[in-house]
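Hi all, posting the design record for the shared folder.

TITLE: backbone redesign
STEP: 1 of 1
STRUCTURE INPUT:
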C-alpha cells in the first residue's frame, strides 16, 4: 500500500472508497495498491491550489523558470528509476521509456525559457484613436485541473504541468489509475525543490476522483487528455460552469504511402506508426492508405516485418514491443480481433492474443478493409493496422479525411511538392512527411474534429494557461 496523494505540500493516504491495483502488464500481476483520494481530498487539493495562487502568480517569471529548470534536472537525476517504472508499469521497451523521460525533461526546459521571455510579452498597444493609451498583460488563468491518461504518463503530465506553472497557474493533477506511481515523481520533485505548498497537488483515483475534480467549482480551467467518451463528460461539466477546457482526445490517423516510395523505408515508417507503445497512442497511424502501384510489393514486406517484431517483457528480454498496459485494454483489443473475424476481414499478420502470461497481443495487419468496418472507423488503441488501396492523390486525401477524428497523419512520397500539397489538404492538427511520430516541444500538439479542442506544446501550450488583459487609459 503506498501513500500517494500530494496535497498542500504533504503526502497523504487516500480516504476514498476505491482500492487501486497497480499492475505489471508483462506478468499480469499486481505490483502495488493504493487507496484513491476521496471527494473531500480533491476539495482539499483545489483549496490548496486556490490558496497558493496569489503568491505564485506574483513570483517573477525568472523565479518560476528556475523551478522549471529544477524539474528538468531532478527528472534527470531519477533517470534509471523512472525508466524502470515505465517499463514495469506501462510495459514500454527501454528505448521508448528513455525517449519519454527525455521528452518530459525537454518540456520543462523549454517552458523555463518561455517563462523567462514573459515580461517582454506585456506590451503597449498602438491605437489609431487619439487620446488613449493601451497595454496588454498576460495573466495566468488561475487554478487548473489536469486529468491525464496512462499511455505516456510522464510526457502528457509534463505537457500540462510545465506550461501551467510557467504561466503562473497553480494545479491539481489527476493521473490515470492505471499508472499512478509514475507521476508521483512530480510531487517528490516539488518537495525536493521546495516548491511552495499548494502550487502542485496530485490526487489519484478512478472516474469518481476525476469527476470530483472536473465538477469542482473552484477551478478556473480544466485540461483533459483521454478518451472521447470521458472527454465529452468533462466538457459537459465545463459547460455547466461556463469555464474553459482543453481536450486532447482520440485519433484514427492515416498514413498515406505513394508508389514512388522506397518500399523498405515505407515499411519502417508504417511499423513504427502502429507498434510504438504497442499502438497505444492517440497518434497511432492505424489506417494505411497505399497506392495501387506499390501495394503488392509493400504488403508482404509489411506482413513479414510485423511478424518479425520481438514482442515480450521489456524487463527481461530485448524487445521491440511490450504488452498492452492494462487488462481492460487487452480485452478491448481482443474484442476487435473477434469483430474482425465476424466481419470476415483478411488478416495478413497477428489477429490474436499471445498464449503467455501478461497482456500481450501480436502486431496485426488487416488488408482491403471496408470503409464501413468498425476496425477502419474506431480507435482501437493497440497494434492493429488496417490497410486500403487508392489510385489517385485526390482519392487518398478524401479517404484520409473521411474520419470523425483529425489528430495527425503521415505522408510518404519521394515527390516533396506533392507531399506538401497533400499535407495542406489533410484535416488534422499535425502532419509528418517522410517521418513518423516525431514530436518536438516547439511545435503544436492537438487535433481537429473529434480529436479535441485547443493545442498543447510550443507557445500555444503556454497560451492555453494565460488570459489576456488590456489596460486602457484616457490621456486627456
Ligand atoms: P480515459 O478517458 O478512460 O481516462 C483518462 C483520464 O480520465 C483518467 O485519468 C481517468 O481516470 C479519468 N476519468 C475517467 N472517468 C472520468 C470522469 N467521469 N470524469 C473525469 N475524469 C475521468 O482514457 P485512457 O483510457 O486513460 O486513455 C486512452 C485515451 O486517451 C485514448 O482515447 C487516446 O487517444 C487518448 N489520448 C489522447 C492524447 C492526445 O494528445 N490527443 C494523448 C494520449 C491519449
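Okay, here is what came back for every position:
SEQUENCE:
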Amino acid at each position: 500500500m503506498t501513500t500517494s496523494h500530494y496535497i498542500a505540500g504533504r503526502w497523504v493516504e487516500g480516504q476514498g472508497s476505491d482500492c487501486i491495483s497497480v499492475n505489471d502488464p508483462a506478468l499480469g500481476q499486481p505490483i502495488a495498491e493504493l487507496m484513491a483520494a476521496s471527494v473531500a481530498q480533491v476539495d482539499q487539493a483545489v483549496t490548496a491550489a486556490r490558496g497558493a495562487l496569489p503568491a505564485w502568480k506574483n513570483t517573477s517569471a525568472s523565479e518560476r523558470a528556475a523551478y522549471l529548470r529544477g524539474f528538468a534536472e531532478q527528472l534527470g537525476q531519477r533517470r534509471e528509476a523512472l525508466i524502470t517504472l515505465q517499463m514495469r508499469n506501462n510495459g514500454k521497451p527501454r528505448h521508448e521509456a528513455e525517449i519519454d523521460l527525455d521528452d518530459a525533461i525537454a518540456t520543462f526546459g523549454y517552458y523555463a525559457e518561455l517563462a523567462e521571455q514573459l515580461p517582454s510579452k506585456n506590451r503597449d498597444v498602438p491605437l489609431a484613436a487619439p487620446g488613449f493609451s493601451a497595454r496588454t498583460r498576460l495573466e495566468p488563468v488561475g487554478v487548473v485541473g489536469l486529468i491525464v491518461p496512462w499511455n505516456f504518463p510522464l510526457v502528457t503530465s509534463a505537457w500540462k504541468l510545465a506550461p501551467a506553472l510557467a504561466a503562473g497557474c497553480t494545479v491539481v493533477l489527476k493521473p490515470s489509475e492505471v499508472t499512478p506511481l509514475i507521476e508521483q515523481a512530480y510531487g517528490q520533485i516539488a518537495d525536493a525543490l521546495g516548491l511552495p505548498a499548494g502550487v502542485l497537488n496530485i490526487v489519484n483515483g478512478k472516474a469518481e476522483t476525476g469527476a470530483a475534480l472536473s465538477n469542482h467549482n473552484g477551478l478556473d480551467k480544466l485540461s483533459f487528455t483521454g478518451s472521447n467518451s470521458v472527454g465529452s463528460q468533462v466538457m459537459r461539466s465545463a459547460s455547466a460552469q461556463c469555464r474553459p477546457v482543453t481536450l486532447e482526445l482520440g485519433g484514427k490517423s492515416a498514413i498515406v504511402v505513394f508508389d514512388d516510395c522506397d518500399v523498405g523505408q515505407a515499411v519502417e515508417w508504417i511499423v513504427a506508426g502502429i507498434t510504438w507503445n504497442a499502438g497505444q497512442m492517440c497518434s497511432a497511424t492505424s489506417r494505411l492508405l497505399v497506392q495501387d502501384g506499390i501495394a503488392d510489393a509493400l504488403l508482404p514486406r509489411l506482413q513479414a516485418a510485423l511478424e518479425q517484431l520481438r514482442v515480450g517483457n521489456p524487463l527481461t528480454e530485448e524487445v521491440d514491443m511490450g504488452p498492452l498496459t492494462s487488462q481492460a485494454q487487452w480485452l478491448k483489443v481482443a474484442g476487435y480481433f473477434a469483430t474482425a473475424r465476424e466481419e470476415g476481414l483478411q488478416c495478413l499478420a497477428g489477429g490474436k492474443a499471445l498464449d503467455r502470461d501478461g497482456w500481450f497481443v501480436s502486431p496485426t495487419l488487416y488488408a482491403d478493409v471496408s470503409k464501413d468496418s468498425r476496425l477502419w472507423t474506431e480507435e482501437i488503441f493497440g497494434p492493429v493496422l488496417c490497410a486500403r488501396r487508392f489510385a489517385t492523390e485526390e482519392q487518398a486525401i478524401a479517404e484520409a479525411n473521411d474520419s470523425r477524428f483529425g489528430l495527425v497523419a503521415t505522408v510518404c512520397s519521394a515527390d516533396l511538392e506533392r507531399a506538401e500539397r497533400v499535407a495542406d489538404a489533410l484535416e488534422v492538427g499535425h502532419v509528418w512527411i517522410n517521418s513518423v511520430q516525431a514530436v518536438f516541444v516547439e511545435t503544436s500538439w492537438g487535433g481537429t474534429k473529434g480529436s479535441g479542442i485547443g493545442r498543447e506544446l510550443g507557445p500555444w501550450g503556454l497560451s492555453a494557461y494565460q488570459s489576456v488583459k488590456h489596460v486602457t487609459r484616457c490621456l486627456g
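COMMENT: The chain has 15 helices and 22 strands.
Let me know if anyone wants the other runs.
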